[in-house]
Each structure stands twice: as structure tokens, then as C-alpha cells.
Amino acid sequence: MSTYRDVKKITTHVLQAMKHKGEKIAMLTAYDFSMARIIDSAGIDVILVGDSASNVMAGHETTLPITLNEMIYHAASVVRGVSRALVVVDMPFGTYQGNSKEALSSAIRIMKETGAGAIKMEGGSEIRESVVRILSAGIPVMGHLGLTPQSIHKFGTYTVRAKEDEEAAKLMEDAEILEQAGCFGLVLEKIPAQLAQKVASSVKIPIIGIGAGQYVDGQVLVLHDMLGITQEFSPRFLRRYHNLFAEMQKAVMNYINDVKSLDFPNEKEQY
Length: 271
Ligand code: KIV
Fold this sequence. Notes:
alpha/beta; globular
């Protein structure tokens, strides 16, 4: 059973304690007030306002088009629905890669305008200076290594990363650099389970996996994927807990039939 279920507010320090005690961290994405309220009330530890909003909310092919203003809109909506979970917000593509000053001003806008608890950035040694600068303003930073979707045009495909020794060694090195720079945690996406295990046991900060196997400190999934709202995306690591696409479609079809057949509204449903 969870030792941390009664914690009133999840902070980065609570996550650190959970790793220390060996209690797994459960993280999901959310992009709006209503969904955030549901998953917070269910007891989720961390809510990521992911730039996957670009795919699941806006229908873009990649995460690249979403803007800082759009992320701020999603994140502020999520924060209004949350009382317990730590809310982490993705810094969108193009708002931090230029230099550390630009990164800091993007991070400050997110924290000021949303009320979130932390930000997340993709990349390793190349973002070290930005991590340090953002942390110096008191903003907690989460890293993201492995398959980093903002670099999809460099990778060319969404296949498993770091299968070869050279890329695996660079990932290990980047994880240590990010820990030393002060990140409170890392997301590892779509890498071999043995490598993720090696990272999780060599750093002290929590490692949250997505397609990174069972030997890490927690798991994250995209909410719309695990609920079965999205249909096209079916990687091996995805466990679907529902088929909400079909359920919602059925409910809407019933509504349409009721309207067209004059069944809705009935006498009790009118004034
Ligand atoms: O944007 C996102 O949803 C993410 C997760 C896949 C970790 O970064």
C-alpha cells in the first residue's frame, strides 16, 4: 500500500522521498481543467502538461508547432483543477534551445502565468547551462532523455533509442550531467529496460519511464492513449485501460437518435 497517498501536496521533495523508500511514482498527462480534476481526485502523483497537447489536443503530426502561449493556456487550466498532484509543464520547442536567457524567460512566464510547480525540458549536456540558470531563479526542472519528440526530424523515426553502445553511453553521461545541474527528476522515453535500470540505480533523482521498462522509479503515459481516446497510436509499451473512443462515440450516437426520434427531451426534461 501507498505510504504517500495521504500526502496533501506532492512536491519534488516528496518524489525524492518516494524514490528513497522504493514507492513507485504514477504520472499522467493532462491538458484541461476537467481531466486534471478527475486524475487528481484519483490520486495521481504528477501531472505533466505535455507538449503532446500538440498531437492529442490540436491534431498536429508532431510536438513542434505548439506555442508557449498555448502551453500556458493548457497549464493554467490544469492547475485550476488540481489540489494534490505536482504539475509539471513542458517547455515547447523553440522556447529554450536558443540560449539560457531565453530559456529562463520562457520558464518564468510558465511559472508566473500558470501556477505550476515545475517545468520539463528535452536534452542533455546541451541544456545544462539553461537548467542551472532556471534553477537559480528557484524553478524546479525535470529532464527528458532517450526518444525526445522535439528532435524527431533529427531521429527520422519514433523507434527505440540508445540500443547501440555509443548512444547508451551518451545517455548515461547526460543523466549524470542533468542530476549534477540540479534536475529533480528525469523522464526516460523509449529506451531498453536494462539501460533505464542502470540510469535509475546510478542517479539519486527519480527516473520516470515511458517505454523504458519496469526497473525505474515511476511511469508516465499520455492520458488520451491509456484511456483509448486516441486509436491510431499502439506502441508495445502502451497499456490501454479503456476504449473511451468507442464509449463516447456510442453515447453521442444514442443522443443523436434520441434527438431525431423526438425522445429527447421528454416532459420531465423541460420547464
Ligand atoms: O509531452 C509528453 O506527453 C511527454 C511524455 C510522453 C513524457 O513528454
